[in-house]
Amino acid sequence: MKPTDMAKEGTEMTEETEHMIEKNGAKETENVVSAGDPKEMRAVILSGFGGLNKLRVTKKAMPEPQEGEVKIRVKACGLNFLDLMVRQGNIDSPPKTPLVPGFECSGIVEAMGENTKGFEIGDRVMTFVNYNAWAEVVCTPLDYVYNMPDDMTFPEAAAFSMNFVAAYMMLFEVANLREGMSVLVHSAGGGVGQAVAQLCSTIPGVTVFGTASSFKHEAIKDSVTHLFDRNVDYVQEVKKISPEGVDIVLDCLSGENTGKGLGLLRPLGTYILYGSSNMVTGETKSFFSLAKSWWQVEKVNPIKLYEENKVIAGFSLLNLLFKQGRCGQVKTVVEKLFSLYNQKKIKPVVDSLWALEEALWWESDRLTLHYSAWLSWFQKLIHPQRSAKSCQGGWHL
């Protein structure tokens, strides 16, 4: 199935809301308007780590760009599994609260600080931010800001950055994906999982094995070569098809899956851990789940690694950007991805769109929906009184 076909269903579900955001389907670059006091903005505030009661929509002082920063009027921002882990405090070195969550968004350049070059007022951009994306306005260093392709919508851009950049860097920068190789990706129905499937389709002869909850299989069955329920013994299922195992394992689960993934690697294969979603089992942090997941992680013997010719790696896009200063490397990847997008070889799938005030409801429902793929909502509060309606595993206005 072509990436454009994979995205068709999600696109159709959001057409009505897209029309409200971008009149006549065109790019919105002018007449940026914000209701209320121009010195204030709306934002989602996390008052402390814990359950949904720690989140609220409130007014906050309007930020202004400092030297080298870009001020962006947000049109869409992404909701990822990491955001849920942040809310619970299930991350290393959590920041102090209160804070505004969110790491990715898209919008229109509204102002620039001194010595800021490369952008103009009205430019359509997507950006990474070190928190603060769930707001009407963000200010961020220009190194994290990218001009969007002409045909890309704001919701697509918000669903694009974290997922496709992470998938590309793991496949090509870390694991060196080549023709004829095989890949096992967990949570194949999620944002990164779907990006992995699309990117693998750009390389001839790549076989994709995926695990996902059974209710997602119908929607993603055409994008994954071999799809398994995550609750079955996928190791045996993979070995029935490929007795030697796979070349690349992309694991966002951790726990017992670490040992299983290493066991499935062929010689010279690469196992990449990029998440630990098994640690999240409810609305709040569970120390039992943390302990269980940690206990189940197989202790890696480095001697065994070289004897078996296997590679184990970790990947964190946010650390790469905000702690390790690899902005230039990420920018190069973004440019390659934009080229693939313009060639219509990849296309982000937007699951649903929500108004800012409905963010709390969506994060609650997301537990029920098992994080069903590409999620974003827009901050422009158009017809906020409208109720949401159910649509094929997601929600839209």
Would you write up a description of this structure?
- The protein contains twelve helices and 16 strands.
- The strands form four sheets. Strands 3, 4, 5, 6, 7 and 14 form a six-stranded antiparallel beta sheet that branches. A six-stranded parallel beta sheet has the order 10-9-8-11-12-13, sandwiched between helices.
- The relative contact order is 0.16.
- Mean pLDDT is 80; it is low at 8-35, 281-285 and 364-397.
- The chain is globular, with a radius of gyration of 21 Å.
- It has two domains: 3-160 and 348-396, Medium-chain alcohol dehydrogenases, catalytic domain (Quinone Oxidoreductase, Chain A, domain 1), CATH 3.90.180.10; 163-319, Rossmann fold (3-Layer(aba) Sandwich), CATH 3.40.50.720.
- The longest helix is centred in the middle third of the chain and has 21 residues, at 154-174.
- It is of the alpha/beta class and 397 residues long.
- The chain has helices at 3-21, 81-88, 154-174, 191-200, 217-220, 234-241, 256-264, 287-296, 302-308, 317-322, 327-342, 359-369; strands spanning 40-46, 55-61, 69-78, 104-112, 124-128, 137-141, 145-147, 182-185, 207-212, 226-229, 246-251, 265-273, 311-314, 376-377, 389-391, 394-396.
Fold blueprint:
Layout: H1 3-21, E1 40-46, E2 55-61, E3 69-78, H2 81-88, E4 104-112, E5 124-128, E6 137-141, E7 145-147, H3 154-174, E8 182-185, H4 191-200, E9 207-212, H5 217-220, E10 226-229, H6 234-241, E11 246-251, H7 256-264, E12 265-273, H8 287-296, H9 302-308, E13 311-314, H10 317-322, H11 327-342, H12 359-369, E14 376-377, E15 389-391, E16 394-396
Parallel strand pairs: 8-9, 8-11, 9-10, 11-12, 12-13
Antiparallel strand pairs: 1-2, 3-4, 3-6, 3-14, 4-5, 5-7, 15-16
